[in-house]
């Protein structure tokens, strides 16, 4: 028999496939790309995925080991998914084994055997529907179960019997053995009957639906550019119905876990479909089941966050990516991929449409529209009777404020609450105050592990670092001069909440930030409370800005916009513009008019003036021109090499030894900027430096990196540092 070799992707930082021999007494027909195998790797055992099968190996057979176990009879990863993952490894310069590991749920990564779970359902047989009344009178518990099943009139799960306040399992078992109740197996996410009828779309929505529906059989990237409240979700729903009617699946991606329950509920009310959700908040078992159901085709809608982009789909017909501008779609640790860009590539390879929705599109997407790579669909008006909110600036220069709340803003809050309406106050800083200072000696609470100040969290009487997570008890006296003259400087969500509690003691107040929404369903509980109506105050961070619908909110106050107007990051103005428009979009979403008040000490700032006098599109046009003149993305392509170590000297030694390698591969098409210290030099006890590579051509950038990255392993000082490469970085921190 002709010898053959298995090329296997194993979860390790080494960017290569590993050659293994097949098991003894097996033949080539038993192996296929996409199967998982258990391998002996160094002193441990690792699960890997067969990527290809070859007739040759660069190593001698005596140097190769056989695999230990073939885990799958059939490929778990399809040929199309292998192609996508291989592209992602190459594009992001990430070890191929780490990329494959990212695509598998933890249980399957660990070698668990895949098996879909089904739920037992109970229903009455024909005999069970006509049990003799006299018999039931002697068995009241059986009568109760019969009555419950008659009322349901469809197979039900065991959860349906939870309302019975007695041990029902033994009684049910007896009824099954008597032939009165029958068991069936059903998928946990079986189709639900539609509760709500379709809405009648307006003309702009209908045009968008018709445009996309006319090209469901091929690849097109659509940017659905709709103002807040314009009904983008309705467009999604009607397009999903059309794709499902073709017998295909749909992948819907969201930036945040907190948005998933709301959209899932809306989908269930409108779509007769089998839907699963996939995000990091699920258990390992739940993620595995969702993954398997999508792969088998049992589920026809996947609703997920960033990591769901790699979920296998048996017959994917469309990808929808909502809030495409959101930075949460970019993984910032480990395998630093953009779920948006991977989704676009996946749609291209599958020859299916992808719909990218946003009220504040990223400059990258708008640039692709300019270049005719994306098709531009516009929803210019809000749906129904709602209108765009009016936006006004409050000039805070030389004005006294109540812990950053100006008199005009407080008056507007008073008027709003008197009308039994709701108010959102946006503070993009959690905690009580960002600085704890001593009035006597000027001491400031600093994080020992980071170049940052500790944030006061008053409720817990703690100081926390929002960068490394360090926590300390809040001191009662100054550790330097021993005086009890410590005071908190500045305001976060917690302090604003306290101020509002004093000013409005009889008004319900909800705070929405990472501290208050940690628990399961915590965010949904707050949202449900808001939807109950009545005068309420909501205080929160940017979590408030993301896609939530609060029908009774008529006033939005942005407390401190100035911090986002000045930054060394060239993307800061884009993010601030998006944040302002998204937060403003929470106001006046029903028939009542909305108002947005922005407090600032920079009322003449060009960004604010453009957003108020014109709109986001005008800002984006100006910003694109500035980026082009400055030779910045999306006109240029970047890669960021980050280097860090506990000892700063180790980083500097490595960078010094890297210099001759950079000189050796220098090319005019690629500009090397740095090395320079990161904007935050020390973080989590490690000193951080970086090099930025820029090019007008993706091809040149990748060629340069393919020459550079293998050389890093040759540098002696590389053993004492950690490094990573970030392709298309969205921040320079």
Task: Describe, in plain words, how this protein is organized in 3D.
- The chain is built from 20 helices and 29 strands.
- The protein has 733 residues and is of the alpha/beta class.
- It has five domains: 5-109, PriA, 3(prime) DNA-binding domain (GIY-YIG endonuclease, 3-Layer(aba) Sandwich); 118-187, no CATH class; 203-379, P-loop containing nucleotide triphosphate hydrolases (Rossmann fold); 390-432 and 491-626, Rossmann fold, CATH 3.40.50; 637-727, Alpha-Beta Plaits, CATH 3.30.70.360.
- A hairpin with a 2-residue loop joins strand 27 and strand 28.
- Helix 1 crosses helix 2 and helix 7 (203-213) runs parallel beside helix 8 (232-245).
- The mean pLDDT is 90.
- The longest helix has 17 residues, at 648-664.
Q: In short, what is this structure?
A:
This protein is an alpha/beta fold and 733 residues long. Helices cover 30% and strands 23% of the residues.
